[in-house]
């Protein structure tokens, strides 16, 4: 695992109107790591990713990316700097074909040859997408849409990939396939990954480090393997009796 922090949150407070969703979050994601963020419903996992990727602006605190203060920097600017966010619920374009969805993902890339190369890399990762190149995104199955959302996020060859619940609504076989690919991206391309998951055991199974979030606050920060062994974590998030 890496040493230098690629991402840091320092005392981050994020609100939805009066609702205080993140209450002074401190987090570090080192370059080259997979970091899992786990926690129950409404803990603030999605809000954390939105705050990192510039979709939401924190009311207080700082977000640092690649050594720079990026607090309040808009999402499209961060995307241009290699931070790619796969949001909750996938958000692919239903009226565009698979290929067109991938092309939209590459909007910050201008070199046609490079775009085509990345499309082919996406097809190599997800052969199902190649078979469905001209199919409309909206007619794909849930698992296929998740693959498309990830392939689209990879079109910028991200340095930091933010993944929000990639396993949601997928059959066990698809979940395995997605997690294998996440691990492969990290090992073979060195992509740093911040992974939000309800499926805590799978997430901790591939992560280096884990954070447990509870009502907007970090409760635990440990090596992922340690968290997976922790009795309280097992009872609360891993479904142990
Ligand atoms: P889940 O696993 O259920 O998706 P989460 O950990 O991702 O939960 P968030 O979606 O980040 O949690 O929500 C954190 C808090 O912010 C919750 O109390 C939620 O009700 C609130 N919240 C989230 N989105 C909005 C919104 N658009 N407007 C108002 N409140 C919101």
Automatic annotation (TrEMBL):
Signal peptide: none annotated. It holds the Pfam family ABC_tran. The keyword Transport applies. CDD domains: ABC_TM1139_LivF_branched (cd03224). One of its GO terms (biological process) is L-amino acid transport. The keyword ATP-binding applies. PROSITE patterns: ABC_TRANSPORTER_1, ABC_TRANSPORTER_2. InterPro entries: AAA+_ATPase (IPR003593), ABC_branched_ATPase_LivF/BraG (IPR030660), ABC_transporter-like_ATP-bd (IPR003439), ABC_transporter-like_CS (IPR017871), BCAA_Transport_ATP-bd_LivF (IPR052156), P-loop_NTPase (IPR027417). One of its GO terms (molecular function) is ATP binding. PANTHER family: HIGH-AFFINITY BRANCHED-CHAIN AMINO ACID TRANSPORT ATP-BINDING PROTEIN LIVF (PTHR43820). Belongs to the ABC transporter superfamily. This is ABC transporter ATP-binding protein. It comes from Deinococcus terrestris.
């Amino acid at each position: 695992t890496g040493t230098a922090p690629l991402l840091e949150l320092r005392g981050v407070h994020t609100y939805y109107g009066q609702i205080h969703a993140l209450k002074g979050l401190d987090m570090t994601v080192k370059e080259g790591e997979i970091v899992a963020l786990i926690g129950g419903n409404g803990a603030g996992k999605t809000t954390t990713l939105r705050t990192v990727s510039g979709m939401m602006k924190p009311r207080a605190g700082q977000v640092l990316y690649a050594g720079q203060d990026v607090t309040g920097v808009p999402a499209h600017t961060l995307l241009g700097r290699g931070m790619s966010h796969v949001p909750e619920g996938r958000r692919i374009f239903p009226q565009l074909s698979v290929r067109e969805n991938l092309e939209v993902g590459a909007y910050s890339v201008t070199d046609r040859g490079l775009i085509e190369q990345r499309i082919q890399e996406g097809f190599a990762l997800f052969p199902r997408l190649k078979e469905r190149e001209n199919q409309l995104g909206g007619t794909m199955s849930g698992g296929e849409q998740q693959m498309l959302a990830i392939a689209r996020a990879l079109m910028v060859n991200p340095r930091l990939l933010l993944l929000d619940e990639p396993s949601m609504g997928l059959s066990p076989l698809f979940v395995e396939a997605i997690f294998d690919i996440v691990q492969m991206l990290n090992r073979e391309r060195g992509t740093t990954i911040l992974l939000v998951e309800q499926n805590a055991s799978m997430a901790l199974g591939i992560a280096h480090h884990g954070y447990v979030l509870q009502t907007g606050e970090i409760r635990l920060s440990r090596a992922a393997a340690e968290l997976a062994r922790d009795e309280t974590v097992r009872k609360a998030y891993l479904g142990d009796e």
